[in-house]
UniProtKB/TrEMBL annotation:
Organism of this sequence: Terribacillus saccharophilus
UniProt key word Membrane: no
Residues annotated as domain HTH lysR-type: 1-58
Record family assignment: Belongs to the LysR transcriptional regulatory family.
Name listed for the protein in its UniProt record: DNA-binding transcriptional regulator, LysR family
GO molecular function term, any single one: transcription cis-regulatory region binding
UniProt-listed PROSITE patterns: HTH_LYSR
Alphabetic keyword roster: DNA-binding, Transcription, Transcription regulation
InterPro entries xref list: LysR_HTH_N, LysR_subst-bd, WH-like_DNA-bd_sf, WH_DNA-bd_sf
């Protein structure tokens, strides 16, 4: 067993795909397969199950991943302690986030980080809201982005980056668009397009109407913000989304924000990491880059409004 095998195992465990792992590591796929096979033979245990075309970690693989991450983190720490501060950073960083943050907040972060640290491999995983925090505890992510109210956690370090505004949006020909002022009662019998239960801001949406004793609203649930947006444009119902998701469609006139002020929601895009994790220079650099980009975006948004 050597560090190269551990690094390969970690990359495969993160991507759950031999071809993507090989691409990230700049190996041919057969090399990756050979290294994993050799590791499994040495450990005398299966680390992955091949379920058709799907690759999943076995229970033993999940346990081994925790130790592999610790060893690789220690090696990064050791290398960092003997390198000059001005040496170019290199290594691998695994990031997880949900669909909204990935599509609308992270591209600028990734672009700036890559321009500054081209030798760092970025591995991104799109993860459902309910599973994001767990990836920090099981070691499959180095840092994650969370869209939620400010999180208090004993095991995680959390840094809010930018506040997210939410609105109700409808197609231009929706009857409620014509009204100057809306009350909660106006929404009875309307169809709402919302995220599935478990999404943090879906819970907030439910609380708003529950407090007003409006339980008869009907809704369609989606996993994708893009699906919600497209259905709203088609006139199927009213979408509840962060403003950043609909900025382009509002400017085109395809969606209109409804004239109803949503009660204050303290929702932030936040970056998080495990408190016990050693913050390598790569992680520190990424956190600093994300903070810089999102602070700039928030300031620009303030100027626009």
């Amino acid at each position: 067993m050597d560090l190269r095998q551990l690094n390969t195992f970690q990359t495969v465990a993160t991507t759950l795909n031999f071809s993507r792992a090989a691409e990230a590591l700049n190996y041919v796929p057969s090399n990756v397969t050979m290294q994993i096979k050799a590791l499994e033979e040495e450990l005398d245990v299966r680390l992955f199950d091949r379920l058709g075309k799907q690759l999943v970690l076995t229970t033993a693989g999940k346990r081994f991943l925790t130790h592999a991450k610790e060893i690789l983190n220690k090696m990064d720490e050791a290398r960092s302690s003997v390198r000059h501060d001005n040496e170019i950073l290199s290594g691998t960083l695994t990031i997880s986030a949900n669909e909204v943050v990935c599509a609308y907040r992270l591209p600028d972060v990734f672009k700036l980080f890559r321009s500054r640290y081209p030798r760092v491999r970025l591995i991104f995983r799109s993860v459902p809201n309910l599973q994001i925090k767990q990836t920090l505890f099981d070691g499959t992510s180095d840092v994650v982005f969370i869209l939620d109210e400010h999180i208090q956690s004993t095991g995680l370090a959390v840094q809010p980056l930018t506040k997210e505004a939410f609105r109700l949006f409808a197609a231009p020909d929706h009857p409620l668009v014509k009204q100057d002022v809306l009350q909660l009662e106006d929404f009875r019998e309307e169809v709402f397009l919302i995220n599935e239960k478990g999404c943090p801001y879906r819970t907030m949406f439910d609380q708003i109407f529950k407090q007003a004793d409006i339980d008869c609203t009907s809704s369609l649930e989606f996993q994708s913000a893009e699906a919600i947006k497209q259905c709203a444009i088609s006139g199927i119902g009213i979408a509840f989304l962060p403003e950043i998701v609909t900025e382009v469609e509002v400017n085109r006139g395809e969606l209109v924000p409804l004239p109803w002020p949503i009660p204050e929601l303290d929702v932030y895009t936040q970056i998080s990491w495990h408190k016990e994790k050693w913050l390598s220079p790569i992680i520190v650099a990424f956190i600093e880059t994300a903070t810089e980009v999102m602070t700039l975006e928030e300031n620009n948004q303030s100027v626009k409004t």
